[in-house]
Write a structure and sequence with these properties.
Blueprint (H helix, E strand, L loop, with lengths): L4 H16 L8 H27 L6 E5 L3 E2 L4 H7 L3 H11 L3 H7 L4 E2 L3 H15 L4 E6 L7 E5 L2 E5 L12 E2 L5 E5 L2 E7 L2 E7 L2 E13 L6 E11 L11 H16 L15 H24 L7 H4 E6 L6 H12 L4 H11 E4 L10 E3 H7 L1 H22 L2 H7 L2 E2 L2 E3 H7 L3 E4 L2 H11 L1 H6 L4 E3 L6 H7 L2 H11 L20 H26 L8 E6 L8 H17 L8 E6 L7 H19 L1 H4 L2 E5 L5 H7 L5 E4 L11 H7 L3 E4 L5 H8 L5 E2 L4 H10 L4 H6 L2 H8 L11 H8 L6 H20 L1 H15 L4 H12 L5
Parallel strand pairs: 1-4, 1-13, 4-12, 13-14, 14-18, 18-19, 20-21, 20-23, 21-22, 23-24, 24-25
Antiparallel strand pairs: 2-3, 5-6, 7-11, 8-11, 9-10, 11-12, 15-17, 16-17
The chain binds ligand 26V.
Protein name: Alpha-1,4 glucan phosphorylase
Organism: Psychrilyobacter piezotolerans
EC number: 2.4.1.1
Length: 800
């Protein structure tokens, strides 16, 4: 299709007429957005429809990425960029006197994820399409995404994220491809023709209706599919023959119950993890996705034995781990494959990615719940466990050993164990994380199946995180090294030659300043706080969690506050500390830290003796679109988790790509960032994983004793309970001195020193700029295109 300015203009006219029976220019701004987005959707639809041909389904291996979360962010602009229509659309907007940025405000934001894991899934979809891998997403179409955060009196208040309220242009409902999901009931096994056939009676059926979202590849005519399932009651229409008010209200109740399944995304939270509705969600989308994949392949005449050559299923964390048992169920009960063959097929098809080593985040389900909700699937899990345990027993002749790896123990199912036993590949998301998996968390499994374990360091898509979010930097890079880096971000490396080129470095500095101005304006609009664009923008944005140590950052700010007040000769380059973070609704400590940041902020920002040096800003309701403004406008990226606890981190890579320097611990992908850019171009501090391991083993960390030798820090900590900040922060105080498992105080001094070092280097503008350029140059290594190529080759058996 040849798209020209004229064509877009005439399509806008046509679509306006069809949708609103009006001339385009006579419609409202919001309607104009919808018309425009519909026209763009039309352009991509041709290739979307053709995807089957493109990929020669049945001949080329397909990948299905199963994930409970896809944190997509707004899609209009990235679709335009990937379709190669950016310049043309700009021209059209100019001609019509319109503004694309204004249109973007009306673009719905699917925030269907909690944080890193969901955003990674979105970056992976973008990369699979862009490098031409037939990879599709499978998830849930939640009516409500992650809660909306408001800050009232410095505290987090949660509200619903009604992201669908004005519709979502990019999706297409595919009712005719709906699937039936069975819950509850009883199973009896009946022997017929040599097979044990399960007879399922008394079950409830929920209808899973698919909504497809196009995933547009970058300039390559590929459009993949993200399929999100919505839960509905079966048979939407009422039976008017048997209609009476009694059955009507019963139906209403059933409808409400059924639709609850896809009502909302759970905020990751230990207290929520045991909820039945969450388990229902997991089985719901796993079953819908697998049934649709199998029925599609069966219709194409592909036999189960050929499934491993035809498709691969990537399990994103343990949330879709029921895939293993459900796939077995389909193969055995519906396709009549014998157990042993079905098991071999399952293992070849499935692969599992682990995203956390935090024990409280490891999914476990009580067998009573599973047995009741999905009785047949439970029987299969039991059988998988029985066979696996027998094998392990045969190998070690030691029941203790068996119990360490058992899938079912103490009447709970360990979902990670199920995922490992049923997959041919298990991967961590950074070198350090994978090492911890094989040496510690899954050590016993590594001994059993060393060949299954591998590392795939996370990545980010430069299309959203540079081309879209930092247009000025994109253009400058084009001018200096040409355009080819956009297809191959590894070529950003060419920028390294310019790290000593003063005029180039000044341009980089100029772009940063412009982005800081945009961010400053945004901060003003969001918080009413005025910030100085010449100060260092020091940014800490991610979920609020103990291990991410926002607390260490705010303690450092309190420390500076005191120094400024007490030391007449105090000086530093002014700094603006920027935070944005959502806390899980039931995570009390995290919520208190939000309150503390806001309270300290009020004190600092209102005190003229202090605010000439430091200011503190908390931007409410962190989201993908806010990240797209915050990250390009930052100078310093805070990646200060307790070593060993952040599996990878991905915002670290986004900041790097946008020319912010990192202050970080040797944790997750920071380790590899240091390797890539060299230790002189990153600010690493703090205890390493192995050192912390020793401290834990010897139990040699005593915060109270530690504070005795650090009087200044002690005063800071005491301020948490002496009323300086208004509220009661004694819970944070107690957390810090009662053997804090995140070692905040232990790493504090080196953190402080590193900030002092940064202060000095920042004043040497040439040095700083040259470090910035080196970081941008090496950031291409962390492109998710690289990551996906490795998944394709080493896990999915696809050579691209
Ligand atoms: C889950 C939970 C649930 C229970 C309460 C506490 C808690 C804390 C963390 C989590 C994490 C869930 C998995 C996750 O999002 N992991 C993140 O995955 C990213 C992509 O691989 C990775 O970059 C982050 O380091 C990792 O935390």
């Amino acid at each position: 299709m040849n798209i020209t300015k004229q064509k877009i203009l005439s399509d806008l006219k046509k679509v306006a007429m069809i949708m609103f029976t009006k001339e385009f220019i006579d419609t409202s701004k919001e309607d104009q957005y919808e018309i425009f987005a519909t026209v763009i959707k039309g352009y991509l639809s041709e290739n979307w429809l053709k995807k089957n041909e493109n990929y020669r389904i049945g001949k080329e291996k397909q990948v299905y990425y199963f994930s409970l979360e896809f944190l997509l962010g707004k899609m209009m602009c990235t679709n335009i960029i990937n379709l190669g229509l950016e310049d043309l659309c700009m021209e059209v907007m100019d001609e019509l006197g319109l503004d694309l940025d204004e249109f973007e405000k009306y673009d719905a934001e699917p925030g269907l994820g909690n944080g890193g894991l969901g955003r990674l899934a979105a970056c992976f979809l973008d990369s699979m399409a862009s490098i031409g891998i037939p990879g599709h997403g499978c998830g849930i179409r939640y009516d409500y995404g992650l809660f909306e955060q408001k800050i009232v009196n410095g505290e987090q208040i949660e509200g619903p994220d009604n992201w669908l309220k004005n519709g979502f242009v990019w999706e297409t409902k595919k009712s005719h491809e709906s699937q039936r999901i069975k819950f509850y009931g009883e199973i009896t096994l009946k022997e017929t023709e040599g097979y044990l056939t399960p007879i399922h009676t008394g079950y409830e059926t929920i209808l899973a209706v698919p909504y497809d979202i196009p995933v547009v590849g970058y300039n390559n005519k590929v459009v993949n599919n993200l399929r999100l399932w919505k839960a509905q009651i079966q048979g939407n229409d009422f039976d008017f023959n048997s209609f009476n008010y009694g059955t009507f209200s019963e139906l209403d109740e059933q409808k409400r119950k059924a639709e609850a399944i896809s009502k909302l995304l759970y905020p990751d939270d230990a207290t929520e993890s045991g909820r039945l509705l969450r388990l229902k969600q997991e089985y719901f989308f796993v079953s819908a996705g697998l049934q649709s994949i199998v029925s599609y392949n069966s219709k194409k005449g592909i036999r189960p034995s050929k499934f491993p050559e035809t498709f691969n299923i990537q399990i994103n964390d343990t949330h879709p781990a029921l895939c293993i048992a459900e796939f077995m169920r389909i193969l055995i009960d519906e396709k009549k494959v014998y157990w042993d063959e079905a098991w071999e097929i399952t293992k070849k098809v499935m692969s599992y990615t682990n995203h956390t080593i935090l024990t409280e985040a490891m999914e476990k389900w009580e067998i009573d719940k599973v047995q009741k909700l999905i009785p047949r699937v439970y029987m299969i899990i039991e059988e998988i466990n029985r066979r696996f345990c027998n094998k392990v027993y045969q190998k070690y002749d030691d029941w203790d050993r068996v119990m360490e790896v058992a899938i079912i123990k103490d009447r709970v199912i360990n979902m990670a164990h199920l995922a490992i036993v049923g997959s041919h590949s298990i991967n961590g998301v950074s070198k350090l994380h994978t090492e911890i998996l094989t040496k510690k968390i899954f050590k016993n499994f590594y001994e059993l199946y060393p060949e299954r374990f591998n590392n795939k360091t996370n990545g980010i898509t430069h299309r959203r995180w540079l081309l879209k979010s930092n247009k000025a930097l994109t253009t400058l890079i084009d001018d200096v090294i040409g355009y080819s880096w956009k297809d191959d971000p590894n070529l950003l490396e060419k920028l390294a030659e310019f790290s000593q080129d003063r005029s180039f470095c000044k341009k980089i500095e100029g772009i940063k300043l412009e982005n800081k101005k945009k961010l400053a304006k945004f901060i003003w609009e969001e918080t009413g706080i005025e910030v100085d664009v010449n100060s260092i923008f020091d940014t800490h944005v991610k979920r609020m969690h103990g291990y991410k140590r926002q607390l260490m950052n705010i303690l450092h700010i309190i420390y500076l506050y005191r120094e400024i007040l007490e030391d007449k000769d105090f000086t530093m380059h002014p700094k603006t500390f920027i935070f944005s973070a959502k806390a899980a609704p039931g995570y009390y400590l995290a919520k208190r830290i939000i309150k503390l940041i806001n309270s300290v902020g009020n004190l600092v920002n209102d005190d003229e003796r202090v605010n000439k040096f430091i200011r503190v800003v908390f931007i409410p309701n962190y989201s993908v679109s806010k990240a797209q403004i915050i990250i390009p406008g930052s100078d310093l990226s805070e990646q200060i988790s307790t070593a060993g606890m952040e599996a990878s981190g991905t915002s670290n890579m986004k900041f790097m790509m946008n020319g912010a320097l990192t202050i970080g611990t040797l944790d997750g992908a920071n380790v590899e960032m240091k390797e890539a850019v060299g230790e002189e171009n990153i600010f690493i501090f703090g205890l390493e994983y192995k050192e912390l391991k020793e401290i834990r083993k010897k139990q040699s960390y005593d915060p109270i004793k530690f504070l005795e030798t650090n009087p200044k820090l002690k005063t800071v900590v005491e301020m948490l309970r002496d009323g300086t900040f208004g509220g009661d922060f004694s819970s944070i105080y107690s957390h810090l001195i009662d053997g804090d498992r995140y070692f905040v105080l232990k790493d504090f001094n080196t953190y402080l020193e590193t900030h002092r070092k940064i202060d000095k280097i920042y004043r040497d503008r040439d040095k700083w700029n040259s470090m910035v350029v080196k970081n941008i140059a090496k950031s291409g290594y962390f492109s998710s295109d690289n990551t996906i190529r490795k998944y394709a080759k080493e896990i999915w058996g696809i050579d691209n």
